[in-house]
Amino acid sequence: MVFSSNPLSLSVPDPTFESWLRDSGYLDVIDDRQSAAAAATTTHSKDTDSTTTIPMTGFLYSYLVSLFANLWIMLSLFTLNPFSKLTTNDFGGETPSWTKGFFGDCGSYSFPASSSQARLRVHENVKRYARNYASLFILFFACSLYQLPVALVGLVSSLALWDFFRFFSDKWGLDRFPITQQILIRFAQIATAVILLWLNVQMALSCALGVSYIVMILHAAFRKLTPVKQPSRVRVK
């Protein structure tokens, strides 16, 4: 659905119109409006500079201001909580297409114009591509285990330990002895923790989590919001 900048500008102020877009789910329109406003400001600034002679110090000052503004936007990405609006329902739907949906084309990416736009993109894209990010984490974790074979041995050993525990628990009927079963479970948990720590499984997990988080934050911040299919509204006669 295509909107002009504000088709109801004579009767509805911009904040109210933007609030309606947000409540109606047209977050992609808000994203486009913020990008267009930033582009218009940049164009106006360039036109002013072209008609006014500015000394070299002025250009340097303008460049530094722009540089620090972009750095502040990048730093703000690591101060927000990208999972604040994530729910379990976001993992229940179909996985978006990797080519058209997740990656898109070159025109699907742009530097966020402000911290608020970066926050809007991150929160919405994390909800939309939750299953894609989860798949990437599994891929990165598998690569980490490949690079650290000892960690792979530790992970397999811990899984085998619990498999053996379940087998002998069913064979010996430990369900009839809950106290003994709880004691053995505690010993198995301690043994699992020792195996995971001793064989550096936590190192592989930390690397996978760190890389996945950075990739998720950068992709969600630079990926433009795309229109989503709005639910059909049934008219009551």
From TrEMBL:
Bilayer topology term: Multi-pass membrane protein
Domain of life: Eukaryota
Subcellular location: Endomembrane system; Membrane
Keywords assigned: Membrane, Transmembrane, Transmembrane helix, Transport
GO annotation (BP), single: vesicle-mediated transport
Transmembrane segments: 60-80, 136-162, 182-199, 204-222
Primary site of residence: membrane
GO cellular component, one term: Golgi apparatus
InterPro entries in the record: Prenylated_rab_accept_PRA1
Function statement: May be involved in both secretory and endocytic intracellular trafficking in the endosomal/prevacuolar compartments.
Stated family: Belongs to the PRA1 family.
Protein name per Swiss-Prot or TrEMBL: PRA1 family protein
Organism field: Corchorus olitorius
